[in-house]
Specification:
By secondary structure, the protein is mostly helical. It has a domain of 38 residues: Histone, subunit A (Orthogonal Bundle). The protein has three helices and two strands. The protein is flat and about 60 Å long.
Length: 96
């Protein structure tokens, strides 16, 4: 795969980032190193190797859910910068 300025510009657009010329050159080099590593990994013979599902043999090692220290609604709202009766008020984040 060829890493060029067009690809870096497209990735920058998708990730909402901006790069100057020096940063673009560094990113092109980094992306090329990543692709070279992936190509190197593709050379490894994995015939007969089972996919790794878990890092160890433990099954369902979970703690019990326990209710600990509760905060009342009044206490929770006491430090809120903006509130409306029983609710936190936050800025609108969804565009129409």
């Amino acid at each position: 795969m060829d890493i060029d300025n067009g690809l870096v510009d497209r990735l920058a657009e998708l990730s909402k980032l901006e790069f100057n010329a020096d940063e673009k050159e560094r990113i092109k080099g980094d992306l090329q190193k990543i692709l070279n590593l992936v190509e190197k990994l593709n050379e490894v013979n994995v015939d007969g190797v089972e996919p790794l599902k878990y890092m160890n043999d433990d099954v369902n090692v979970l703690r019990e859910d326990e209710v600990k220290g509760q905060v009342s609604k009044a206490d929770a709202l006491s430090n809120a910068p903006q509130r409306d009766s029983d609710y936190f008020k936050v800025p609108k984040v969804i565009k129409k």
